[in-house]
Amino acid sequence: MPHADSSLVPETIQSKADFWAHVYTQLELLLELERNWVTNLANASSVVYNSLLAFPSHFGTNERAVNWCGFYLDSCLFPPPRISRVDPIASNNPQASKLLLGPFCGKPACQFINTSPGKARGVCADAFLQQKTALVPDVDLYPGHIACDGDTKSEVVCPLILKSNDGNAEIRVLGVLDLDCLAVGGFDEEDKKGLERIAELVVKSCDW
Ligand code: SME
């Protein structure tokens, strides 16, 4: 099967529960071929984004479309540059805690999100620091929301939580999976549940 077909959604799928189960299976098959996180997060954002757009009974049509899907990652995961033209002392506080923009689908977005105590702001920082999914039906009512795209009306952000091998203890939060929608109330509890399973799958499919 061509890789692009991973994001097709058969017409027999009508409910959200079946939709998220289908996306999970497609992603599971795709991610088992590789463990590099850049590679897997790139395909994960594409499968989720394009599957949502291909599921018009709930998403994907004009003003209700999902307009962004991607990852922000703890800057600690990125190795320090081997060759840099920027003087680290002169550069703007390279040690600050932040989330960096990772693989995504959609229009350009902010490159980093501050997670330092007292300076953290926005839905992604909150989901990351609280280690809890943030379901935001109306971004204009969310204190501190960062508007990367003025057209976004609602958002859901799931933390990426690395667990111990037996799956019980939480080791650390690696970053977040973020989705935006052009409609108010674009995501519900069922989407939250489906995305949390996908976030878990993505974490366990990669070496970090
Ligand atoms: N709205 C997010 C910022 C990321 S963009 O939506 C892609 C936030 O408030 O953290």
UniProtKB/TrEMBL annotation:
GO terms for molecular function: L-methionine-(R)-S-oxide reductase activity. It comes from the Eukaryota. One of its GO terms (cellular component) is cytosol. InterPro entries: FRMsr_CS, GAF-like_dom_sf, Phosphatase_reg/MetRdx. This is GAF domain-containing protein. The lineage of its organism: Eukaryota, Fungi, Dikarya, Basidiomycota, Agaricomycotina.
